[in-house]
Amino acid sequence: MTPTALTVAGSDPSGGAGIQADLKTFSALGAYGTAVLTALTAQNTRGVTGVHAVPAAFVGQQLHTLLDDVEVHATKLGMLGSAEVVREVAAVLAARRPGPVVCDPVMVATSGDRLIDDEAVAAVRDDLLPVADLITPNVPEAAALLDVVPATDVDGLLEQARALLGLGPGAVLLKGGHLGGTDSVDVLATATGTTVTRRPRLSTTATHGTGCTLSSAVTALAARAGGRPDWPALVEEARDYLQRSLAAGASLGIGSGHGPVHHFAGIWPA
Ligand SMILES: Nc1ncnc2c1ncn2[C@@H]1O[C@H](COP(=O)(O)OP(=O)(O)OP(=O)(O)O)[C@@H](O)[C@H]1O
Ligand SMILES: [Mg+2]
User: Would you say the pTM of this structure is higher than 0.85?
Assistant: First the structure.
């Protein structure tokens, strides 16, 4: 049986984030990729100039039609946009359980801009987190979900990761990419304890889509592993993949802003 992963997310025409990054990551890590689109964006490596949302009912129709035919072994959720789409996706997932669900609660851009309104944040907190097996917020997203000030150090990450676990997801990977420091530190909280994952912080402008790439890497590995995911092991392997992809990103030379990571580092012919 071919390991099959699903991404539910928006399109990034520049190919570094969103659906495009997720499908590249699934492909690089040996999972067959399927995709349900929630939005089109007009975007390049310098920024987003527009968003065209897919109506919630049609997001639901895409999901049902796909799942009526294709067996999905793990699902990743990226940018969902509105409260209506969040509630629709949560309802379909609760009813159909397409493998472990990795939810990247995309709410706050690296620039600090809020990407979704307060009603959608509340819908993520109340409807989506309880059906997610793993959530992967960044520092400002964790703060928004908990309604507290952002963490500033690893102890703060650990405390907020445990607090997020109390909102209902199976596990929490709180990403510390925004904290700075010589290492980039993420923390994982599960029902059985916490682990800290460190990798040397790489100095590169090719950071477009790091969050999408990490969560889709974990999803692809979960699809391949089958059964109940061993999140600490999958997160370590996903970060190794992201680290290789980040290190090689600048060599692609795509765009003039924050370019993509290289999803096929070590795979493409030299
Ligand atoms: N310069 C870097 N070097 C190594 N790892 C990094 C670097 N920047 C971020 N990371 C890692 O990339 C992943 C994404 O973290 P980050 O906190 O930036 O998420 P994000 O804000 O959701 O990303 P995005 O802006 O792409 O959505 C984490 O595993 C983080 O530790
Ligand atoms: Mg992100």
Answer: yes
As given in the structure block, the two tokens for residue 227 are 């059964």
User: Is residue 107 over pLDDT 80?
Assistant: yes
Active site residue 197: no
List phi, psi (to 5°) of 115: -100, -15
CA pseudo-torsion sign 136, 240, 244, 3: negative
pLDDT of residue 116: 83
CA torsion through residues 16, 20, 22, 26, sign: negative
pLDDT at 223: 98
Pocket of ligand 1 (CB under 6 A): 110, 138, 175-178, 184, 186, 199, 201-202, 207, 209-212, 214, 239, 242, 246
Per-residue pLDDT band at 33 (split at 50, 70, 90): very high
Q: Which of 4, 24, 212, 213 is catalytic?
A: 212
Average pLDDT of the chain?
A: 95
120 lies in some domain: yes
Domain contains 64: yes
d(CA 36, CA 19): 8
Domain assignment of residue 211, yes or no: yes
Please count the structural domains in the chain: 1
Q: Please report, for the domain that includes residue 161, its CATH number.
A: 3.40.1190.20
- Domain assignment present for residue 265? The answer is no
124: region left, alpha or beta (phi > 0 left; psi from -120 to 50 alpha): alpha
Is 207 catalytic? The answer is yes
> What pLDDT sits at residue 112?
64
List the alpha helices (DSSP H) in 97-131.
118-123
pLDDT tens, position by position, 169-196? 999 999 999 998 999 999 999 999 999 9
